[in-house]
Design goal:
- The structure is a single chain.
- The chain has 271 residues and is an all-alpha fold.
- The protein has a single domain, classed as Methane Monooxygenase Hydroxylase, Chain G, domain 1, CATH 1.20.58.
- It contains 12 helices and no strands.
- It is globular, with a radius of gyration of 22 Å.
- The termini are far apart.
Length: 271
């Protein structure tokens, strides 16, 4: 008889690994709409990316709440985790890039008008981080729950706004984060000056200094994810229009210019 080192083998009456993780639903959630071999890769790559984004949203909400409570050490851990999530998302592009243009063409018509541009979780991440293009909520109007959570997010200050408010309190300055919650963030010189004060004396303002660097780390990996998205799309479809109607690569390249925490990048030239 094989020795299984005491491992439990009968789960007829107990919760198993698959039960806990809901694997039956997860592993049978792939429904290719063509006979093309590579459609399974395309579906799984995007499904796993959505799972990682779900975790990123969970961590970003918690990090924002921790910053609001002036509890920075847990926030640092959560922000570092989100950075690693985007490292994982970057790795997913490497897998997708094994698909050639010919292989994608085999099943692209099956996508119809569906596109990653319609990911409400990606839009939620951008809204939390402060890139709030409110007109894009229309993309999600046909899904009441997704649209509702996005509209709720627009009533809250972004992660960057709560970080700015905390930094101002730490430096005994007036709160500079008065931009309406619904608006996309724009660079402001007084905020850059505030960060410069932190960077010029990190020993005195160590927690705020670390907060700044955690935000820079996060945007750094987020930018890498965007860049890898652009190169992957260009490699596979060239300059065709996206399935969702965007200009494809041209649109994605424009997104590379977006700065989430601009003053934290601009201040480096003045130090």
């Amino acid at each position: 008889m094989t020795d299984h080192h005491g491992a439990k083998l009968d789960f007829a009456k107990d919760m198993s690994y698959g039960d806990y993780l809901g694997l039956d639903a997860l592993l049978y959630a792939q429904h290719p709409r063509s006979e093309a071999h590579d459609e399974m890769l395309f579906i799984i790559q995007h499904q796993t990316s959505e799972l990682w984004m779900r975790l990123a949203i969970h961590e970003l909400h918690a990090a924002r709440n921790a910053i609001l409570a002036n509890d920075l050490r847990p926030a640092f851990k959560m922000l570092a985790r989100v950075t690693r999530i985007f490292e994982q998302l970057n790795g997913a592009w490497d897998v997708l890039r094994t698909m050639t243009p010919s292989e994608y063409t085999d099943f692209r018509p099956a996508l119809g008008n569906s596109s990653g541009f319609q990911s409400h979780q990606y839009r939620m991440i951008e809204f939390i981080l402060g890139n709030r293009q409110t007109a894009l909520t229309k993309v999600h109007a046909h899904k009441a729950e997704a649209h509702g959570v996005l509209m709720d997010e627009l009533q809250r200050p972004s992660l960057y706004q709560v970080a700015l408010s905390l930094t101002a309190r730490g430096l005994d300055l007036s709160d500079p984060a008065g931009l309406p919650a619904q608006a996309s963030w724009v660079a402001q010189q007084p905020i850059q000056d505030m960060w410069q004060h932190v960077y010029e004396d990190p020993a005195t303002h160590w927690e705020l200094y670390e907060l700044a660097e955690k935000l820079v780390d996060l945007e750094d990996y987020f930018r890498r994810w965007r860049f890898n998205h652009v190169t992957t799309v260009e490699r596979i479809i060239g300059f065709k229009r996206g399935t969702g109607g965007t200009a494809g690569v041209a649109y994605l390249r424009k997104m590379l210019e977006v700065e989430l925490f601009p003053e934290l990048w601009h201040v480096r030239g003045d130090l």
